[in-house]
Design goal:
The complex is a heterodimer of chains A (about 220) and B (about 400). Chain A is α/β, with parallel strands linked by helices. Chain A has seven helices and ten strands. Chain A is globular and about 50 Å long. The two termini of chain A are about 25 Å apart. Chain B folds into two domains: about 200 residues, no CATH class; about 160 residues, no CATH class. Helix content of chain B is about 55%, strand content about 20%. In chain B, helix 1 packs across helix 10, helix 8 runs parallel beside helix 11 and helix 10 runs antiparallel to helix 11. Classes of the chains: A alpha/beta (about 220), B alpha+beta (about 400). The interface between A and B is medium-sized, with 26 and 22 residues. Chain B: One of its GO terms (cellular component) is plasma membrane.
Chain lengths: ~220, ~400
């Protein structure tokens, strides 16, 4: 089986003296629900940005869904973000000027979908994350948990095989966190979506199939 | 369509900061209005001047004469005269010969020989006294001014033969005057052109006074309507011949007014530049404020080109609204010039431009309004290039990390 994420010998240096990643190797299988843990500065976020094509490695190779990422090809990176990956952020990162439904549909603006199709898919996904009645609400009118659910629906809109999440429960209280983790797990089971979740939250670790730990730019467990 | 979706998204972005958008739009609109107002003043004066020329002169009469293009002399031959007579927009054409005679008291006589038929077809002469000349005779008609001179100082009367002198040169080179007899049979009504001082006779008679080389001295052409004159002149000139007539006055008015309009528009355009700089500042600010959002857009799949397009479309929306508003303000401005400035201008120009007091001194043409919108959109998009590049070249990681 082709792994969802394959990282070989990835180095990332920030001159003059920082080595954020020091030869990282890891593999995430298709359909896995993996937690990536480690202290601040251990390189988790750098790795996530590189996997997402937002940053580039100085050395090593990255494969996403069986395709090696060519970091020199801007169009390929754009296509990767559009079709293969979904992002979920710690602080939700919804666009404040758009309603929940418009936020969910937003990525399709760049994915060549008509307005009708965009709205239809967005409204189905909002239903899936339990926010059908919030479709016309703006982010400022919603709780943190609701905003994160909208963000999760947005990450799913292009039906990507892999979702990268950066502290998805970092800004939520314990009860809300549990709901969000439950939702992510449910998506993982029902759709077979691969999750790589950077987290400090032990609840996420407990729910995960596997936990990868990083320290000082290296994978230690 | 994707561009349409982008446009509606961009329009939504413009309306987010309503006050700022309104101020920016007013900035560009004022610039457009200034250009439209001043240009409309120039166009209005141009239209008045051309109207005055058209009313006072015989615009559709064009005289063709030999032209010297590219070192070769192009003469008005019979073939060329026929070719011109067959051009579109030509109602009638009459070849002519010219000569100069003198009266016995040495009054200069500018003599034109025309076919009797061509004469009436091209000039539709109307007579103050008498009638037209008959073909093949030595009868002539006189212009109003020359008739006045000859009648008063030389006692010439209609129907009575007049002896005139034709200056010729003997083989030895010494001048010798020949005498011929003309019979004035009619006097033209005053026309306000060269025919007032002309003596017109039959081409076969006038043309036979001297030996000629088988070509005409010119060709009178009557165009079917004023609008046909300029294209006709172009065709005539492309044959290597030259054309003269009242249309030249319009050409010179146009040349003058082109200059005036360009100078006026230049000064008005300064305010347009200020408007463009406002858009640039607004958009740079707006792009920095939205760094975070632009980063998100890139993370979810917007390419650099798409970010660039979105920002430029925002500018285009601002420009479009600004242009339309500017057109409206420009019309109002032109109206204000009419209302406030007209009395002064009428007083300064005097009675000759009295027509202005009934119409307007400004003229807002549809083309000018189209230009207003196109210029506003174009300038706005141009001003947006720099902010759009800033937006598109952001590092998405940095942009997402930055907070509003």
């Amino acid at each position: 089986m082709i792994p969802a994420i394959e990282v070989h010998g990835v180095w990332r240096r920030y001159p003059p003296a920082v080595e954020a990643l020091r030869g990282v190797n890891l593999t995430v299988d298709r359909g896995e629900f993996v937690a990536l843990v480690g202290r601040s500065g251990s390189g988790k976020s750098t790795l996530l940005n590189i996997l997402g094509g937002l940053d580039r490695p100085d050395e090593g190779t990255v494969g996403i869904a069986g395709v090696e990422v060519d970091y020199a090809d801007g169009n390929a990176l754009v296509a990767l973000r559009r079709q293969t990956l979904g992002f979920v952020f710690q602080d939700f990162n919804l666009l404040p000027s758009l309603t929940a439904e418009e936020n969910v549909a937003f990525p399709l603006l760049f994915n060549y979908q008509g307005a009708g199709e965009r709205a239809r898919r967005a409204s189905t996904l909002l239903e899936d994350v339990g926010l059908a009645d919030r479709a016309d609400h703006y982010p400022r009118e919603m709780s943190g948990g609701e905003q994160q659910r909208v963000a999760i629906a947005r990450a799913l809109i292009a039906d990507p095989p892999v979702i990268l999440a950066d502290e998805p429960t970092g800004n939520l209280d314990t009860r809300t966190s549990a709901g969000v983790i439950e939702l992510l797990r449910q998506i993982n089971r029902e759709r077979g979506t691969t999750f790589l979740i950077v987290t400090h939250d032990p609840e996420v670790g407990a729910e995960a199939d596997r936990t990868i730990e990083m320290r000082d730019g290296e994978v230690v467990a | 369509m994707k561009l349409l979706d982008f446009l509606s998204y961009a329009a939504g972005q413009v309306t987010r900061k309503r006050m700022r958008a309104v101020l920016t739009i007013i900035g560009i609109a004022v610039g457009i209005a200034a250009v439209i107002g001043t240009v409309s003043l120039g166009e209005g004066i141009r239209a008045q001047a051309i109207g005055a020329i058209e009313a006072q002169s015989d615009l559709t009469l064009v005289e063709v004469s030999a032209g010297g293009g590219g070192g070769a002399m192009h003469l008005v031959t019979g073939a060329r005269a026929q070719a011109i007579a067959g051009l579109p927009g030509v109602d009638a054409a009459a070849p002519l010969v010219r000569d100069s005679f003198a009266s016995e008291r040495q009054t200069y006589l500018a003599v034109t020989g025309l076919g009797a038929e061509g004469f009436s077809a091209v000039l539709s002469p109307s007579y103050a006294q008498g009638r037209g000349f008959s073909p093949g005779t030595n009868e002539v008609v006189l212009g109003a001014d020359i008739w006045d001179t000859l009648r008063r100082y030389e006692g010439v009367r209609l129907g009575e033969p007049v002896t005139v002198l034709v200056r010729a040169y003997a083989d030895t080179g010494s001048p010798e005057d020949r005498k011929i007899v003309l019979v004035p049979v009619g006097v033209l009504r005053e026309r306000g052109d060269a025919f007032d001082t002309a003596v017109v006779g039959d081409i076969s008679f006038i043309g036979a006074v001297r030996e000629r080389e088988g070509h005409y001295d010119g060709l009178l052409v009557r165009a079917s309507m004023p609008a046909a004159v300029f294209p006709l002149v172009d065709r005539i000139e492309s044959l290597g011949l030259s054309a003269t007539g009242s249309f030249e006055e319009i050409e010179s008015v146009n040349r003058l007014m082109d200059m005036v309009v360009v100078v006026l528009a230049f000064f008005a355009a300064v305010s347009l530049v200020v408007g463009a700089l406002m858009i640039m500042t607004t958009m740079v600010t707006s792009v920095y404020e939205r760094r975070h959002e632009i980063g998100i857009a890139m993370a979810v799949g917007a390419s650099q080109r798409e970010v660039l397009t979105l920002i430029l479309l925002e500018c285009a929306v601002i420009g479009l609204i600004g242009g339309i508003l500017g057109d409206a303000l420009g019309i109002a401005f032109a109206w204000l010039i009419d209302a406030v400035g007209k009395p002064f201008i009428v007083a300064a120009l005097g009675e000759g431009f009295a027509g202005i007091s009934t119409t307007g001194i400004t003229l807002v043409t549809p083309l000018l309004l189209v230009f207003g919108v196109v210029a506003a959109v174009g300038l706005s998009v141009l001003s947006g290039l720099y902010p759009a590049r800033i937006a598109a070249r952001q590092d998405p990681v940095e942009a997402i990390r930055s907070r509003r």
